[in-house]
Amino acid sequence: MSLKDVKxxxxxxxxxxxxxxxxxxxxxxxxLSLKGCSVGVLDVDLTGPSIPxxxxxxxxxNGHGHTNGNGDAxxxxxxxxxxxxxxxxxxxxxxxxxxxxxxxxxxxxTAMVRQFLSDVLWGSLDYLxxxxxxxxxxxxxxxxxxxxxxxxxxxxxxAVIVTTPQAISISDVKKEINFCRKTGVMILxxxxxxxxxxxxxxxxxxxxxxxxGGQVMAQEFDVPFMGSLPIDPMFxxxxxxxxxxxxxxxxxxxxxxxxxxRNADSDEAETAGLLVEKYxxxxxxxxxxxxxxxxxxxxxx
Length: 301
Ligand SMILES: Nc1ncnc2c1ncn2[C@@H]1O[C@H](COP(=O)(O)OP(=O)(O)OP(=O)(O)O)[C@@H](O)[C@H]1O
Ligand code: SF4
Fold this sequence. Notes:
Elements: E1 6-13, H1 21-34, E2 39-43, H2 51-54, E3 86-90, H3 106-118, E4 125-131, H4 138-150, E5 156-163, H5 167-183, E6 187-192, E7 197-198, E8 205-206, H6 213-221, E9 225-228, H7 233-240, E10 252-253, E11 256-257, H8 268-271, H9 276-281, H10 284-299
Parallel strand pairs: 1-4, 1-5, 2-3, 2-4, 5-6, 6-9
Antiparallel strand pairs: 7-8, 10-11
Helix pairs in contact: 1-10, 3-4, 5-6
The structure holds adenosine-5'-triphosphate (ATP) and iron/sulfur cluster.
Residues 14, 17-23, 45, 48, 50, 134, 193-194, 229, 231-232, 235-236, 239, 284 line the site of adenosine-5'-triphosphate.
């Protein structure tokens, strides 16, 4: 069973598309891995797999996409074996082209989700984060059904729900809360994303939309509120430039020195990937640090 050595499984859900679920998943993964956890990211968004793009590895094929640069392309099932402390799996690795559309009926999607959970060799992970499509679709139902079979209740940590402050997004997220309650998935907390805009000139945060809706909703539904995140243009720039995660010089995780991709003779560090140095410099990092501390205290008190 491929989830055998996975300690904690966390679903990332949102009722509405484009609210930043994949961004939140990526940043939770980076922050957890910077804290020394070994992390896997499973992209279950079959019609719009964006995790490879977020990690700057969309050109990787053969169904594997480990991101710490150990250079070993091991995969045994035709799917993935994650090495190191940050690995991911997505249908995006199996598509010929970024623009390829997946037009699948429910049973095929269900089979794919099952295969992701039972055939991908995740190895030993502290956290498996699962980025889901928006809403409560076939993928969600297959996912939860499969997890109930493949994972133990101890492994199933619960779900993080992402919303934006606008009322429509919040009303959609209520459906996710109901979904979790009906399927018995514990709600670890709600994250409000895009609650304001950080000016690239003066770093002042302006509330473009009304702020605080996520907190009000969390109170109303009696679920924990984990925090608000502004829109930071630096984050968008990092993603658009397609950078790969690169650890700061000297980072050692689980006793293993992380590859930095630094080349003294070139500007390779600037082009090799999503620079964690820059990521940690962007306004979202301290906020994620706080969110991850809350997550860890709930999961591993
Ligand atoms: N806090 C943020 N600051 C800056 N950019 C952000 C932030 N959150 C999300 N974005 C950007 O908004 C866009 C949509 O985010 P993302 O793809 O994470 O949403 P999603 O909910 O996963 O979407 P989908 O419904 O397609 O799965 C991306 O380009 C992402 O870079
Ligand atoms: S927030 Fe400050 S720097 Fe940014 S646009 Fe407004 S006044 Fe200018």
